[in-house]
Design a protein that fits this description.
About 50% of the residues lie in helices and about 15% in strands. With about 170 residues, the protein is an alpha/beta fold.
Length: about 170
């Protein structure tokens, strides 16, 4: 029997439950879980730590050349250092969209993501995973949730992190 490589793509909007579902599937099927959003966060952390202006595309692309982002046992490593907690801090959250909107960054990240899928059996979640990043994935899922549910999940996530936020208002 031929062992077929398993590549699972999980797509959908923020807060729909992509990560929760993907982590569970990774655990059950013994797949490497790859959170593509964490990759952008890791690069953003590096940009911040190096004091690079988020609008300095040339410098960002230069540091990407010697940047490694790895996923090992559901932990994110940036240049060999585990950064799970650091990439979830507010300063990274506040700047990640500036970095991820750079077309050249997205192109390089897609290349990195595809390479990660070539070397392991993976489940990868993020935006455009099934259409752009892994169009030939064995299995593709698009996860959705109502706006209210997505807001509730984000609110709960922030509370669990100890963020100081206003109480959730029900309309």
């Amino acid at each position: 029997m031929v062992n077929k490589k398993i590549i699972v793509a999980v797509d959908g909007p923020a807060g729909a439950g992509k990560s929760t579902i993907s982590k569970k599937i990774a655990e059950v099927l013994k797949l490497e879980y790859i959170d593509t959003g964490a990759m952008y966060r890791a690069l953003t952390l590096k940009v911040i730590n190096k004091g690079i202006n988020p609008n300095d595309v040339k410098s960002i692309l230069e540091i990407m050349e010697d940047t490694t982002i790895e996923f090992i046992n559901n932990h994110v490593y940036l240049d060999g250092i585990k950064v799970d907690e650091e990439i979830r801090k507010n300063i990274v959250t506040n700047h990640v969209s500036e970095i991820s909107k750079i077309a050249e960054v997205r192109k390089k990240m897609v290349d990195m993501q595809r390479k990660l899928s070539e070397s392991n059996n993976v489940i990868m979640d993020g935006r455009d995973i099934g259409t752009v990043v892994l169009p030939h994935a064995n299995y593709k899922f698009f996860i959705t949730a109502s706006v209210e549910e997505r807001a509730r999940r984000r609110y709960k996530e922030l509370l669990e992190k100890g963020e100081k936020i206003l109480p959730m208002i029900k309309f």
